[in-house]
């Protein structure tokens, strides 16, 4: 969903993450601008919030719509959807901990083909990445994966694994 929203308009994504900046004026103190004093930029920001809300409404089902439709900003809607589907920070940390444990104990199963093992491994790494835990060094991932493989496959993989991203196998 993040990529979809960013592809529509990166400022749209910015409004969802940071919330809309409500138009204000300063006459001694900062206060909300009356609508008849809005300039083009004020209307654009409010329009981006409305567009973001519209995109979210179109992307969700009836139950989620009922849950978020009363909110005024796309940020509030997004935050509720994020907690609903990804959980609170405590839940995310628990998921990360569980996945790191799976990653550290990862082994190739007996009679498992390389592609199935690699799919399981990639699923763990991608799930960690989606939760904000990144393993940046590809060499580290390669070494970790090779350690977890049964001996007959290690040599085969070493010969086929590219050393440079543009090198053909």
Keywords:
disordered C terminus, 2 domains, elongated, 169 residues, mainly alpha
Please describe what this structure looks like.
This is UBN2 domain-containing protein. The protein is mainly alpha-helical and 169 residues long. It folds into two domains: 2-86, no CATH class; 89-160. It is built from nine helices and two strands. It has helices at 2-8, 10-18, 40-59, 62-68, 74-86, 89-104, 114-130, 138-147, 151-160, and strands spanning 24-27, 29-32. Strands 1-2 form a two-stranded antiparallel sheet. Helix 1 packs across helix 2 (10-18), helix 2 (10-18) crosses helix 5 (74-86) and helix 3 (40-59) packs parallel to helix 5 (74-86). It is elongated and about 75 Å long. Residues 164-169 have low confidence and may be disordered.
Strand runs, count? 2
The major sheet is characterized as: 2 strands, antiparallel
Query: How many structural domains in the coordinates?
Result: 2
Oligomer: single chain
Cα gyration radius (Å) = 24 Å
Query: Which strand order spans the largest sheet, edge to edge or round the barrel?
Result: 1-2
Class based on secondary structure composition and strand pairing: mainly alpha
Question: What general outline do the C-alpha atoms trace?
Answer: elongated
Following the backbone from N to C, one meets helices and strands in this order, namely HHEEHHHHHHH
Note the total helix count.
9
- Average pLDDT score: 83
Distance between termini? Answer: 33 Å
What's the structural blueprint in terms of helices and strands?
Blueprint: H1 2-8, H2 10-18, E1 24-27, E2 29-32, H3 40-59, H4 62-68, H5 74-86, H6 89-104, H7 114-130, H8 138-147, H9 151-160
Antiparallel strand pairs: 1-2
């Amino acid at each position: 969903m993040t990529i979809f929203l960013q592809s529509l308009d990166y400022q749209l994504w910015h409004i969802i993450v940071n919330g809309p900046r409500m138009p204000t004026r300063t006459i001694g103190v900062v206060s909300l601008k009356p609508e008849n004093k809005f300039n083009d930029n004020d209307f654009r920001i409010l329009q981006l919030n409305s567009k973001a809300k519209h995109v979210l409404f179109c992307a969700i089902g009836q139950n989620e719509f009922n849950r978020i439709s009363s909110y005024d900003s796309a940020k509030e809607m997004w935050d509720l959807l994020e907690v609903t589907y990804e959980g609170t920070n405590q839940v995310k940390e628990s998921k990360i901990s569980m996945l790191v444990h799976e990653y550290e104990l990862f082994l190739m199963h007996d009679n498992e083909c390389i592609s199935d093992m690699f799919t399981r491994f990639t699923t763990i790494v991608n799930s960690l990445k989606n939760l904000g835990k990144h393993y940046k060094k590809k060499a580290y991932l390669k070494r970790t994966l090779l350690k977890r493989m049964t001996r007959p496959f290690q040599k085969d993989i070493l010969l086929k694994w590219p050393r440079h991203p543009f090198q053909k196998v």
